[in-house]
């Protein structure tokens, strides 16, 4: 039987890409899609919305019905909306694939509670390349001492609302894990003015925004006399959408729990 996959935030940049990817994946069908009341695309056919063949399902506001009827729901929306969606996943026990970034402690707590009742995959970046880069960064940070300063630079399109990006913070967490420290204790999320010299062991972040950049990340290990860099450049949102659909197929029918992309990808 086909895997029925729904999309909340279906009219968004990622939402449309997700619809097209579900339709193009053998064994998967679009179960439905939602947006908030007032969205101008409400009532439109989801296939048409994604620029593909009509899907015979229209965009609605009923996320409760979507979570009830889908095997898995893909969520690339906004933090408050994602917390509400996680509670719906818990209510219906169906898989929830979360790509939303900018989540703070209260939303994370709601997601963790929901994961006791539904399988939830949570990842700030669903591409294979970035998840491999995270593993490499962890290994490098483990091998190199604090004579190697770690700095993370990211650039995204002008519409992005959170900073640093979820991926940059994920790369930072991987580096901190490799060093055996918590990211919160060493993160320098921005710098301005007379900052004083760099504190040994800090992990620094720099954020660039502009144009239509899909997503670029660079982790720099800088020592006296040499530098190592691990970089990833996304040129299409299709890489995130493919990862999300893969996660949906993987998570369908799994026991409740909070899973990461490395579980899905077997890394
Ligand atoms: N993990 C990953 O691999 C990736 C993660 N992302 C993350 O995904 C998120 C979305 O990115 P992007 O697609 O560019 O953003 P968009 O703003 O284009 O899309 C988000 C969509 O969600 C909608 N939405 C907000 N609240 C609700 C709600 N309560 N119910 C239904 N829909 C809702 C928005 O509607 P409205 O316009 O009304 O607010 C909008 O249409 C961001 O957090 C981004 O960082 C992006 C790419 C990859
Ligand atoms: O908002 C985006 O576009 C992206 N957000 C994610 C993030 O915050 O890391 C992933 C990707 O880089 C695109």
TrEMBL record:
GO terms for biological process: diaminopimelate biosynthetic process; lysine biosynthetic process via diaminopimelate. It comes from the Bacteria. (S)-2,3,4,5-tetrahydrodipicolinate binds at residues 157, 166-167. The keyword Transport does not apply. It is an enzyme of class 1 (oxidoreductase). Pfam families: DapB_C, DapB_N. Its EC number is 1.17.1.8. The keyword Phosphoprotein does not apply. Residues 129-265 form the Dihydrodipicolinate reductase C-terminal domain. Residues 4-126 form the Dihydrodipicolinate reductase N-terminal domain. GO terms for cellular component: cytoplasm. The active site is at residues 156, 160. It catalyses: (S)-2,3,4,5-tetrahydrodipicolinate + NAD(+) + H2O = (2S,4S)-4-hydroxy-2,3,4,5-tetrahydrodipicolinate + NADH + H(+); (S)-2,3,4,5-tetrahydrodipicolinate + NADP(+) + H2O = (2S,4S)-4-hydroxy-2,3,4,5-tetrahydrodipicolinate + NADPH + H(+). NADP(+) binds at residue 36. Its main location: cytoplasm. Keywords: Amino-acid biosynthesis, Cytoplasm, Diaminopimelate biosynthesis, Lysine biosynthesis, NAD, NADP, Oxidoreductase. Coiled coil: none annotated. One of its GO terms (molecular function) is NADP binding. It is found in: Cytoplasm. NAD(+) binds at residues 9-14, 35, 99-101, 123-126. InterPro entries: DapB_C, DapB_N, DapB_N_CS, DHDPR_bac, NAD(P)-bd_dom_sf. Catalyzes the conversion of 4-hydroxy-tetrahydrodipicolinate (HTPA) to tetrahydrodipicolinate. Belongs to the DapB family. Homotetramer. This is 4-hydroxy-tetrahydrodipicolinate reductase. It comes from Hypericibacter terrae. The lineage of its organism: Bacteria, Pseudomonadati, Pseudomonadota, Alphaproteobacteria, Rhodospirillales. The gene is dapB.
